[in-house]
Amino acid sequence: MDQVIVNDVAPRDGLQNDPAAVSAADRAELVNSLVDVGLPAVEVASFVSPKAVPKMAGAAELVAALDLDRADFSALVPNRKGYEMARAAGMRSVALVLSATETMNRKNINMGLDQALAVCRETVQQACADGLKARAYVSVAFACPFEGPVQDSQVELLAGEMFAAGAQEVIIADTIGAGNPLRAKQLFGRLAAAFDAAKLAAHLHDTRALALANAWQALECGIRKFDASAGGLGGCPFAPGAAGNLATEDLVSLLHQAGLETGIDLAALLKVVGRIESLVGRPVGGRALPWLHRRFANREAA
Ligand code: HMG
Ligand code: MG
């Protein structure tokens, strides 16, 4: 059966901008719960300035609490310093963040596009030389909150730069949820033709309730790896208007209904969503959550 890999970003994207501060120990426990229910990949932390993103402090402590053999764990790194910290902590996979526009790079990592590209290129090369897996985001792939629409050619150019530097995976990120199914079909179709679709992933925020529709288009274009966030938490602190990520439970529900395999126990994942609610102190969850709860409650009763 056709297999799709889901990478849960709740511990990183989900919690980096949440009003609740969740300790490194609780975030490590969340990572383990996600692996327990079958997530094959989790973005566990970011090695970024605690002044820029206070909620992600304690990344090394979090990583030290994990058994790194359990799943494909990655950490976000914005620069060389973050890379060195992630490597020293024992991470085997890092994710660089390159935005498609000048202003988004400046707001997010305090570098212009040229400098961000050079830093990402050098860090990817270093990771490869050190035997780590290097992943690279291309953010604001449909539109930038500061500069407006982004050309598909620009996304293709930057993805090509990252592959040329040695990135094993390029993650196409709709940071503010500005994509729609027509645009998603164009962009993912173009990228899947230009590159090996097995090395592309989609990271879709759900601001306009179109993330699932866009994910479907990406699937139709041959993309088989998706970021998603249990409970639908998420958003970049430096991208105004960014809402939560595509909820893992919504994505997995779609994939399973379409006959695609993920290895994830959806009923058990709902319990992790419940745990996230208690960590952040308010109701969370994807759009299908009430129906999913009813579905599994009925199955257990039957
Ligand atoms: P800067 O101020 O230009 O950095 O910030 P700097 O090199 O001038 O250093 C300033 C201070 O930060 C120094 O410390 C450095 O040592 C320290 P001080 O001397 O003042 O005590 N520093 C660091 N500390 C920890 N980790 C580091 C690091 N680097 C320098 N890696 C910097 C530049 C990149 C550090 C800052 O802007 C930053 O941390 N940005 C992170 C932004 C971020 O995390 N954004 C959210 C994640 S991206 C996202 O969510 C999008 C995504 O989900 C995909 C999508 O949806 O599009 C991935
Ligand atoms: Mg994101």
What general form does the structure show?
Answer: globular
Number of strands: 10
Secondary-structure element string: EHHEHEHEHHEEEHEHEHEHHH
Task: Give the CATH level 1 class.
Answer: Alpha Beta
Instruction: Calculate the mean pLDDT score and round it.
Output: 97
Largest sheet: 8 strands, parallel, barrel
* Residues in helices, as a percent range: 40-55%
Strand content: 15-25%
Distance between the termini: 27 Å
Please state the CA-atom Rg, rounded to the nearest Å. 18 Å
| Tally of distinct domains | 1
Which strands sit side by side, in order, in the main sheet? 1-2-3-4-5-8-9-10
Low-confidence stretches: none
Structural class call reads alpha/beta
- Helical stretch tally: 12
Supply the key terms.
single chain; 302 residues; binds 3-hydroxy-3-methylglutaryl-coenzyme A; globular; alpha/beta; binds magnesium ion; eight-stranded parallel beta barrel; 45% helix; 16% strand; two-stranded antiparallel sheet; TIM Barrel
